[in-house]
Amino acid sequence: MSALIASANSFLFVPASRPDRIAKALASGADMVIADWEDAVSPYDKDAARTALMAACGAWAAIDRSRLLVRINAAGTPWHGADVQALKALVQMGVAGGCVPKAESAEVLERIAGIGGEACALLALVESVAGLDAVDVLARVPQVARIAFGHLDFQVDARMQCGADEIELLPVRMSIVLASRRANLPPPIDGVTVDTRDAPRILGDARRAQRMGFGGKLCIHPAQVAAVNEVYAPTATEVEFARKVRHAMQQADGGVCVVEGRMIDAPVLRLAEQTLARHDWAQQRMGASRN
Fold it and tell me: Count of CB atoms within 10 A of residue 272's CB?
């Protein structure tokens, strides 16, 4: 499975009916771009959007195609079958895989993976109570790379009326984080922030996601990408402390030691290693953006 998908923090949705926007999204700094055949495209434009993406894909560089996922229409819709067949062709062109909405059945994910081929990574989007009930099974489907939370659809399905802080969804979010960990998947991806102009809100939502154990966030506007990337990149102070922890533990041959007045043991070392891994990924992203 793609190391890029496993490490990615920012996932930017773009209507697949607008290939020109996809090219701009790929240059936005987003780790992954999701070309959307589902919610962003009207029922009357589905076939044209599929054709447009197929036609445009070949013009993009291979590295850009590897950063592209395609959100297909859900199983049971009139467009699903044609979407899966087109996804297969796109994966053969180097696209990373598909984002599967309304994920509720391992059988559906396995069928999509079987058609898409071994190189087809899947992002399973949990958007319903049934999806939450099945999340442990979904997370163990071999080609599922990560789980994502579609919290807006989930609220509708569960008949919830959440406050602005979405505190009512904390147990659901934690269930998804723990299911991903039980399946040994990379941390899951949190849902979108609908207000594209509220910079403090996107930062706050991303920080909550990061604190809870999510490894990234879905975005619906390029302006949100930088905030998400910023949250997932450790500060210089955090990186310096993590390096001190690693050095001190090496000097102590893995035993307990003290750094800046704090007792350091194996769990603290693991947290430090995670911080340094996030730093390495952020540095890699910055290097790619300069090239």
Answer: 23
> Mean pLDDT across the stretch 172-198?
96
Q: Is 166 assigned to a binding site?
A: no
Residue 290 pLDDT exceeds 80: no
Give 261's pLDDT tier (boundaries 50, 70, 90).
confident
Model confidence over 155-179: pLDDT tens digits? 999 999 999 999 999 999 999 999 9
Looking at domain 3-232, its CATH class is alpha beta
Per-residue pLDDT at 186 exceeds 60: yes
Confidence at 1, pLDDT banded by 50, 70, 90: low
251 contacts 257 by C-beta, under 8 angstroms? yes
Residues of the chain with CATH 3.20.20.60: 3-232
Whole-model pTM: value is: 0.93
Q: Cβ contacts of residue 142 below 8 Å, gap of 6+? A: 113
| Residue 97 confidence (pLDDT) above 80 | yes
CA 273 – CA 246 distance, rounded (Å): 8
Residue 102 near residue 123 (C-beta atoms within 8 A): no
Residue 71 in marked binding region: yes
